[in-house]
Amino acid sequence: MSTNTSVSYHTHAVLTKSTADDRRRTSISANTRALVINSRLELKRTTTAKTSSSSNSSNSSSSSYGNNNDTNTTSNKGEVSLLDYGAGNVRSVRNALQKLGYEVKDIKSAKEVLLAKRLVFPGVGAYGSAMDILRERALIEPLREYVLNGNRPFMGVCLGLQLLFDGSEESGGCEGLGLIPGTVQKFTGNDLIVPHIGWNVNEIMKEDQYLLDVNEKSQRVYFVHSYRALPNAMNKDWVSATCDYGSEPFIAAVQKGNVMATQFHPEKSGFAGLKIFDQFLSKGESDIDLTAWMNNNHNNNNKNKNITESSKKGLAKRVIACLDVRSNDAGDLVVTKGDSYDVREKGEGESGDVRNLGKPVELAKKYFDMGADEVSFLNITGYRDTPLKDAPMIEVLKLASETVFVPLTVGGGIRDFTDSNGKHYSSLEVASAYFASGADKVSIGSDAVEVAEKFYKNKEKGDGTSSIETISNRYGSQAVVISIDPRRKYESDPKNTKNKCIETKRKLGPNGEKYCWFQCTIKGGREGRDIGAYELAIAMEKLGAGEILLNCIDEDGQGNGFDHELVKMVADAVKIPVIASSGAGHPRHFSEVFAAVPACSAALAAGIFHRDEVTVLECKEDMAKNGLPTRI
Ligand code: 1PR
């Protein structure tokens, strides 16, 4: 343990160094700087009383991981109690409320619930475990009492909406708080991709001063869930918005008097979400100027003449910015980028420097301002150590989640780990540390390959102990992303492998081979295994994963576009969302992969964004011009 600790401390110490070269590489473009300033202006408050918060509040104004110099809360809009019952990412909600200028009081006990002046009830994770925790902590009756009383504001988020209903068929069926009639059920629909992940459109069902502004301005909001409640005659008076996904529209928001709850995540829905939070908590007196934000920002519908009507409807295809993070040779934590996973500068022999493309927190904020639908951090050397000892990565998440109000995924090193002193860390513990630091999803790479190998040996069954099973049971499948790192393996005859082969039209093998399969690798491509991306994806879906991040070592950093053959093979094999990754070199590559593989839910890029060659908006404009549902 001592070795690990000293490495961490060393890394931390040298992170304070900032070379001129770093500064040059990480300088924000004039355009982005303007956006940052605009963001500050919108959130500027009339008073300057800095809100204090619970113990978890971060006071940092700058950081070695990138300046976190966005305006922090500058006004005091009064106290809001946040019920932290251990259901998942409460930090994001706290950060959003603090950003808006509320003083956040973390509460845990029944007594504190009853004393709250305004109560926010967040929720991520499985219904059954959330109800178990509420029961253990004797919170069920106080919560019911608070809502039934109705004299103080109550805001539920996601599971915090679902728990208000009579019950859910999730977790084998269980009772809820019984405050709204209806049972929460799994999405249904032919060939439907579940979880419902991403940015979708609300339809307002009744006069609702809290959602109206956002809706009138055609702003989408962020959903992530596999279960939903349906409107019916009994709950009609509660339903304030629905959203169309699956076989029928589901309840996106409820509101009655002082009680409001959303199935979507306001804290992850950019400025639109912050506006909704603020509208409700300030009883319709929000001072967030969404119009000013839209006019000053890149995503201004009016300025984009090419936006098609169809792009404004339905679940948007997501554009994700990815940050591969590692320590460079000097020990600084940097965003790097490889060509086919080789992240060292060329022309300097094998010992070329690790490419340094910027600071993680700063770049994450930049991509949020540019309109990225999500941001992913991959700790690419996580296979060597446990992130529980990797304080810098945890710190990156904490800082990024203070200013980035779209979903954050983190990967690298999520697996069971025994350190040199024999101390065992479970993958669930590692993931929990990431969730507590601001991650919304964790991505699992190397461990997933080993779990899949066991799954097939065990007659396609899990044993309940794997990272995928334990984390999805605890936090819900939507929180578990599988990062696949495949490379093409060519075959002259598909019978030469047990893995699913395709006849390729994209690129023949070195000896003219027509067939290929996509071999999974571990440890950042260092070790190939006898299992294909197709087989891995199927196993992961069965074990409870919620999403596939499909990289491609051959195309990584090449700029030739996504490997449609690979994406199609995997997207057709599973019914969970698939994110195409590796190879983006032009805005049209995004439209092309969505057109070629309609089942593909999102596309991710790194190099073109880091090098300022292409903006997120340019990718989205191309998508919207081509009629693809796009959050723009
Ligand atoms: O195996 O669970 O510890 O996770 C390690 C994680 O780190 C995995 O998700 C793995 O994909 C990632 N990783 C490991 N080594 C590298 C490397 O580059 N040497 N990066 C690496 C993966 C792929 C994408 C990249 C896209 C888009 N990089 O993250 O961002 O290919 O790039 P492009 O748009 O520039 O083409 P574990």
Bound small molecules, deduplicated:
ligand 1PR
Strand % is 15-25%
Fraction in helix:
25-40%
* Distance between the ends: 48 Å
Give the rounded overall mean pLDDT.
85
Structural class: alpha/beta
Radius of gyration (CA) equals: 23 Å
Number of helices: 21
Low-confidence stretches: 1-63, 67-73
Kindly report the spatial arrangement of strands forming the biggest sheet: 2-1-3-4-14-13-12-9
Report the biggest beta sheet as strand number plus sense, adding barrel if it closes. Answer: 8 strands, mixed
Q: Choose one word for the global shape.
A: globular
Give the strand tally: 29
Question: Could you outline the blueprint of secondary structure elements for this entry?
Answer:
Elements (H helix, E strand, L loop, with lengths): L1 H13 L5 H7 L3 H13 L36 E5 L6 H11 L2 E5 L2 H6 L3 E3 L5 H10 L3 H10 L4 E4 L1 H4 L2 E4 L5 E2 L4 E7 L9 E5 L1 E3 L7 H5 L4 E5 L1 E2 L10 E5 L6 E7 L2 E4 L7 H12 L8 H7 L21 E10 L5 E4 L23 H10 L4 E6 L11 H13 L4 E4 L5 E2 L5 E2 L1 H10 L4 E4 L1 H12 L9 H9 L4 E5 L1 E6 L10 E2 L11 E8 L4 E6 H11 L3 E4 L13 H10 L4 E4 L6 H9 L5 E4 L1 H4 L5 H10 L7
The chain binds ligand 1PR.
Ligand 1PR binds next to strand 15, strand 21, helix 15 and strand 29.
